[in-house]
Amino acid sequence: MPGKNREPRLEESYRHCRDVVLRARSNLARAFWLLRHDQRRGMDALYAFARQADDLVDCPGSERDRRTSLEQFRHELDHSLAGKPVGMLFPALIDTIQHYQIQPRHCYDLLDGCAMDLSPRRYANWDELREYCLRVASSVGLACLQIWDCTDERALQPAIDCGLALQLTNILRDVRSDAQVGRIYLPQDELARFGVTENDLLSGEPTASMIELVRFQIVRSNALYASAWQGLSYVPEPARRLYWLMHQTYDRLLKKMEADPAAIFRTRVQLSQSTKIWLAARAVLRLV
């Protein structure tokens, strides 16, 4: 298992990754306890890597400084994969990659996706936005399959689509706050198709055209969630419970937006605490 060798530096690295997860505001990250101990440690390392990459992009400072920091992080990954793990994070990450035979390209794809957020940009169409989502989300999903001991190739496409669905759900519920910092993720051709401008997204006052645009994105997301659901039967226990919890949590977020599309322009849609507890209880009791 990852970190079975009790080498002090490696253990310290895994503790660092666990601390990153515990400090996170992500309820799903905290649900890693549904997994076996070794899988949980692997997920901690993967999450800590993704979290640090994301933080480097969103931290205060100029675009140049943030780009330099992300490039340095990439170089640290290079050196670590070459057999010289650096810092607090990489010993655990490399141990996880080696133990579960994770393809390093998934880590590089994630960094490439994060780099796309360094400066304000636009996505001409769904193909371009899909490529971004593949890099920042589906890459992580494919790495998770390895940690979860999922060897069934039929799980690959559902995992890819699950990443796309989760990322598109996040894009929808953050559409206004992202626009306020210059990030417009919704495809430009679809904005034009529905007659929605970037100023409309900033206004906080949804028009009929904006509502139709959101509904169009929800239809796309529902199709992705339907595909992702097929992966449930291919993911072995105990990871199946975590996969189910991730799917159901975000699918229910989407359902809330579907019931009230205008809400995303007023606030960040969230599930109630009671719903989160109910979903977690179902996962724990394996009622999935």
Automatic annotation (TrEMBL):
- Any transmembrane segments, and where? none
Q: Which N-terminal stretch is annotated as signal sequence?
A: none
The cross-references to InterPro entries, in alphabetical order and at most eight, read:
Isoprenoid_synthase_dom_sf, Squ/phyt_synthse, Trans_IPPS_bact-type, Trans_IPPS_HH
For this chain, one GO molecular function annotation is: squalene synthase [NAD(P)H] activity
A GO term (biological process) for this protein?
terpenoid biosynthetic process
Pfam annotation, one family = SQS_PSY
Protein name per Swiss-Prot or TrEMBL: All-trans-phytoene synthase
- Give the species this sequence originates from: Anatilimnocola aggregata
